[in-house]
Automatic annotation (TrEMBL):
Subcellular location: Cell envelope
PROSITE patterns: PROKAR_LIPOPROTEIN (PS51257)
Protein name from the UniProt record: Monosaccharide ABC transporter substrate-binding protein, CUT2 family
Pfam families named among the record's database cross-references: Peripla_BP_4 (PF13407)
Keyword Cytoplasm attributed: no
GO cellular component, one term: cell envelope
Family designation: Belongs to the bacterial solute-binding protein 2 family.
Keywords: Signal
Signal peptide: 1-20
CDD domains for the chain: PBP1_TmRBP-like (cd19967)
GO molecular function: carbohydrate binding
Domain Periplasmic binding protein: 49-301
InterPro entries: Peripla_BP_I, SBP_2_dom
Amino acid sequence: MRPRLVLRTALASAVLLSLAACGGGGGDAAEPAASGASSSAAGAAGGTIAIITVDPSNPYWKAETDTAVAEAEKLGYQTTTNAHENDPETQNSLIETAINDKVKGVVLDPAGADESVAAVQKLVDAQIPVVLVNAEISKTGLAKAQIVSNNAQGAVAGAEAWAEAMDYKGTYVELLGKPSDNNAQVRSDGYKSVISQSPDLKKVGEEIANWDRQEGQEKMESLLSKNPDIDGVIAGNDEMALGAINALKEAKKLDQVKVLGFDGNQDAADAVAKGEMVATVLQPIVEGTTKAVEQLNGVLTNGQTGVPDEKQAIDCVLITKDNADKLDNFVLSE
């Protein structure tokens, strides 16, 4: 068997160019506040922080929302939660509402790197500090902080494990995330940087499945109809990977195909433990969101985040059979 490829260092150095995104899986975290709902914490005198995320029905963003609410209330703030569903127009409307409501600050998971610049600028113009979590925007100097996962490093780690499981040969297909999310391309590029070093690994098809499990299943069914004898699947997130697994199960082909996911949600960890998925890559969204709220609080209380850099990347962690049982709702125990 070939030695495992080692590219983490090279890609990690490029991470600040494009940094984090998306999810899927189970978990027993408390339900987030309903869209637009207000949560009255004991320390209500701190004012209101608006938490604007993507889609709390997805376990990854649910963990993001739950964490932001819990941390903000712990610090004495009220919270509102809303989701833009990756629609820039909805995001603009939610930000305008936050401005009109005179919130003290905003924690935002942006709807596109380029598409979100104007929305963040509106908050800056209204003198409302904003911290970004999970995904970046394509301009610096607006958000007080941009805290994301090191997607390039994580994609390399995942692809190395998957390529080894494939024995560095065979045909495969790829499920891609939402094109407006720069993390979709970062992960795909990270996978390619590893796989391209194994000339006997051949990609025979790809589809965009927009981070969604149902779309992942449907697109996998289409790919299987054209390529019934594939050996592997790489997916930009766990929800798409889990959809692919559903399609492979229905086609009675799962035992012949090696699947790779990304995010580290609970369903994916369970699939890894059962041998249905080679690996997933944990995005430390709980850690990142906790930092986002802490740094926003720093700006609100003393005018600074307390860290030197606006863009901050947190390394991802490879989840395999060796540690899948230690993962609980995006938190890996020692």
